[in-house]
């Protein structure tokens, strides 16, 4: 099998009912597989009745995004994996440009299409835009999306570009590269796991691109809404952990000190200006959880330290996107 589209499902009957028809209609050259994270709704029964041709991998528990995909992909024999969220509407011919680019450029180990909003189809979508980047302090942003500012798609990012991270909402990756770096870090459960994966892929010599000739529409927030304290907790805990795992030793202490300051500012702002106590508590809880488990990642730190002088490419941006956005008032990627 050349490419397998693997959709991770958890209680997503309504999502599949709405979005799966486009995947089936426009993905004739790929096998479609649904990996079920131990759903308690009738999504698998509905799938069997309506799409019996689609293979199902049943997982015995809800392992989250990271663990669910690791366990499912271990059972898929394919040269390429296409990880696709259940709330993505694909378009005619969407897969061909991605596959053609991957076949042509062997050094590219993963890529994504242009991700547009399902709700406002002329705008970029939060989870991936036209490709993800990372600033010097670990803050992710995209071509077409900085923090909560989504740009209108006017073709300004229609050229292929090498990026730091490709969105887990629609990620095409070589299976050999995925397993070479150990797949997703299951300890993350969900959020930031694709950025961590892409960082490790680059450390192993791979390159990651966005090929905007392909575009899809993503609803977003299908599992946890943007303001959910659980999502905030996971984002802060996992983002700090990702930095701890992957930062060069020469930067580690400085970056973590600055993040301590910035994270507490974020918690105060959330509490005093937004009046959201639960979100502020989630930020601080994420920091505490990171501190409590960071020594579990000592092997990863030693691995990074051993690569310190081996000329590993660093695709992170050298600036602070917080400073650019809030102080210099640069709200689009091209302005950065």
Q: How would you explain this protein's 3D organization?
A:
The chain has helices at residues 13-25, 43-50, 64-73, 95-104, 175-180, 193-203, 229-246, 249-273, 277-293, 298-306, 321-327, and strands at 3-9, 31-36, 55-58, 80-84, 88-89, 108-117, 132-134, 140-142, 145-146, 149-150, 161-162, 170-174, 207-218. Helix 7 (229-246) runs antiparallel to helix 8. Helix 2 links the parallel strand 2 and strand 3. The chain is of the alpha/beta class. The mean pLDDT is 94. The protein is globular, with a radius of gyration of 19 Å. The protein contains eleven helices and 13 strands.
Ordered list of secondary-structure elements with their pairings:
Elements: E1 3-9, H1 13-25, E2 31-36, H2 43-50, E3 55-58, H3 64-73, E4 80-84, E5 88-89, H4 95-104, E6 108-117, E7 132-134, E8 140-142, E9 145-146, E10 149-150, E11 161-162, E12 170-174, H5 175-180, H6 193-203, E13 207-218, H7 229-246, H8 249-273, H9 277-293, H10 298-306, H11 321-327
Parallel strand pairs: 1-2, 1-4, 2-3, 6-13
Antiparallel strand pairs: 4-12, 5-13, 6-12, 7-8, 9-10, 11-13
Helix pairs in contact: 7-8, 7-9, 8-9
Cα distance spanning the termini: 42 Å
**Helical proportion?**
25-40%
* Strand coverage percent: 15-25%
Taken from the alpha-carbon principal axes, the silhouette is globular
Radius of gyration using CA atoms only: 19 Å
Q: Tell how many strands the DSSP assignment holds.
A: 13
The SS-based structural class is: alpha/beta
Mean pLDDT: 94
The succession of helices and strands, N to C, reads EHEHEHEEHEEEEEEEHHEHHHHH
Helix run count:
11
Biggest beta-sheet profile: 9 strands, mixed
Low-confidence stretches: none
